[in-house]
Write a sequence for this structure.
């Protein structure tokens, strides 16, 4: 779980900064658009859009923002949408704790990370204290 | 003898040139060199005058350009102010609370529910509950495309706050896709009364309202009665 996989054959669809709350909404809409383009159904679209919304909000809330990379690629023969969130924030010390239902260090509900994992087909997270956090989610049809 | 006079004259003229140049350097562009005698120095004097003319023209041009730019900038600033005002209006407009029945308030939410809007929405609803004394309210989220944990949290808080003021709050318009997503997120919305559509919520609220006003059933028995339907 503590590794992020890379593949040179993925096609980059765009890289965007998340700085303001408006960016969260904007890029989230863009992800929905790409999901639609990938001919995902309304449930699939809603899932990936909600999942990235959680990740964007975490970057906004805990890491003073970050970058979002949207890619398209082939995973195990399936057409996948790959969204990677990269921040240079404080990092997560205890990943297991952060990934558990109901844990929040702030005022949240504590369901963002574990919920996101349940909403996508593949979830990868890598974090280092004082360095930052990378979360990659994949959704296929 | 005459050579000396010319020299004296030349010295005077060069001093005059120096004066004019330092005036120009100090920003005075109205000064010009007055050439009385025509000789080798006259060319220099005229060249300097032309230079001052050119400089004056350039300065005028750049001043004009700056004024034009400032004008454009202030126009853009005005437009920006208008847009921000419109956005604020939109914030207000997009969470209109209306009283549809004696005792029922409806708040349709359209668009994205960020923190700022959620806050305004909650305040509007609670204020209206206080102002009207209504004990039933419907929060319709048909127009909200994404419900993440933050939005769900706002909804829960709104419902809880309304309840503290003595008003029931029904959430309507949760689409099947959003319902599934909420379940996967792991959020428990079972403490909230939800209805699929605004219409369902209205019917529910009106029925409950009737029962309340006709005193057929005590309100605390009501929820149980509804649940068994
Ligand atoms: N990008 C991040 N950088 C630093 N800490 C994070 C990041 N994302 C999540 N966290 C930590 O993990 C915790 C759990 O996150 P999450 O499951 O989204 O719940 P919530 O956001 O409601 O607190 C957060 O409270 C925070 O401490
Ligand atoms: Mg979160």
């Amino acid at each position: 779980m503590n590794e992020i996989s890379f593949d040179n054959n993925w096609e980059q669809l765009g890289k965007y900064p998340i700085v303001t709350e408006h960016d969260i909404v904007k890029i989230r809409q863009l992800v929905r658009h790409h999901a639609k383009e990938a001919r995902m159904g309304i449930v699939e679209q809603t899932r990936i859009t909600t999942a990235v919304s959680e990740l964007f909000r975490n970057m906004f809330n805990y890491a003073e923002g970050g970058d979002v990379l949207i890619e398209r690629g082939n995973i195990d023969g399936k057409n996948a949408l790959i969204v990677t969130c990269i921040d240079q924030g404080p990092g997560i010390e205890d990943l297991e704790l952060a990934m558990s239902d109901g844990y929040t260090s702030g005022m949240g509900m504590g369901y963002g990370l574990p919920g996101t994992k349940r909403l996508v087909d593949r979830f990868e997270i890598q974090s280092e204290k004082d360095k930052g956090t990378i979360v990659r989610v994949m959704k296929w049809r | 003898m005459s050579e000396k006079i010319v020299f004296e004259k030349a010295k005077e003229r060069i001093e005059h040139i120096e004066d004019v140049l330092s005036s120009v350097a100090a920003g005075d562009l109205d000064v010009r060199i007055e050439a009385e005698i025509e000789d080798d120095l006259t060319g220099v004097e005229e060249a300097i005058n032309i230079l001052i003319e050119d400089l004056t023209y350039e300065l005028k041009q750049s001043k004009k350009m700056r004024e034009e730019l400032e004008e454009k900038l202030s126009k853009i600033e005005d437009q920006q102010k208008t847009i921000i005002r419109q956005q604020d209006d939109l914030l207000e407009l997009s969470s209109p609370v209306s009283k549809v029945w004696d005792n029922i308030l409806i708040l349709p939410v359209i668009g994205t529910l960020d923190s700022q809007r959620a806050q305004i929405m909650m305040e509007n609803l609670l204020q209206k509950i206080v102002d009207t004394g209504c004990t039933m309210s419907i929060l319709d989220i048909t127009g909200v495309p994404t419900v993440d944990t933050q939005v769900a949290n706002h909804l829960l808080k709104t419902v809880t706050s309304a309840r503290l003021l003595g008003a029931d709050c029904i959430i309507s318009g949760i689409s099947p896709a959003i319902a599934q997503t909420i379940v996967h997120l792991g959020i428990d919305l079972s403490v909230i009364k939800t209805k699929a559509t605004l219409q369902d919520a209205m019917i529910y609220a009106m029925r409950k309202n009737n029962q309340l006003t006709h005193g057929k059933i005590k309100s605390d028995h009501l929820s149980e009665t509804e649940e068994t339907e």
User: Anything to note?
Assistant: The first helix of chain A runs from residue 21 to 37. Helices of chain A lie at 21-37, 42-62, 95-98, 112-119. The two ends of chain A are 23 Å apart (CA to CA).
